[in-house]
Amino acid sequence: MTDGGDIGGGARKLARGEGVALWRQITQQMEREISGGQYGPGARLPTEAELAERFDVNRHTVRRAMEELEGRGLVRIEQGRGSFVAEDVVDYRLGPRTRFSENIRRQNREPGGRILRVEEMPAEAQLADLLGMRRGRPVVVVERLSLVDGRPLLIGTHHFPASRFGRIPDLLKENPSITAALVACGVPDYRRKVTRITARLPTAEESELLQQSRNRPVLVSEAVNVDPAGEVVDVTIARYAAGRMQMVVES
Questions:
Q1: What region holds the HTH gntR-type domain (predicted)?
Q2: Full-model pTM
Q3: Bridge partners, 75 (sequence order)
Q4: Residue 29 is part of which domain span?
Q5: 60 near 98, Cβ under 8 Å?
Q6: How many helical (H) and strand (E) elements, i.e. helices and strands, does the chain have?
Q7: In the chain, what percentage of residues exceed pLDDT 90?
Q8: What is the pLDDT of residues 14-33, one digit of tens each?
């Protein structure tokens, strides 16, 4: 350990015996480094042991500082994984006409994404009921990873009746926009009829795709979308990285 808490890199030493608690000084120093961009959103911070050595204090003092940062919303602490810089939270608005790209651009952010898989499969009982079709009838499944400013926000799995939307796989090869594919299939507009929202822990695959810990929950929405005539277009199951967004329900 260094005498006096020399923390290097242009950072300030801890002032000992001058009336300001050491944990508070560490809090202020870490806050400066986070706000200055030394640690970006979602970045892992040094461990308690590393910070204790850096500041020449015990781990209890470091823990008190990190708890203060967490209380201010600057840091999130995950048991068994460490401390991370809190990420900017996206307001994800749910309304009758929710469109991902429009939703994100309204907040001056950049939407993006990629299609993970496209396949045809038989509808199981619950899905068939939501789609208003017989069990075992074919559905087109399109799974997409959606990004905000280059970071994963949600995994959306769309289920379309193959009898009506069998062209979607070929259309997506030409243009990856699902909305454009629906227009080409004769559906210029659609709206949410009903949405159910739950929460659970992610699977290993979801955790990897969303770049988040398996002990952090995902929000899961199940939406039934219909065309202007009220016919079911698709059932979409979306899994959201809960730490990066908050849902805003619009009436």
A1: 20-88
A2: 0.74
A3: 85
A4: 22-85
A5: no
A6: 9, 10
A7: 67
A8: 888 888 999 999 999 999 99
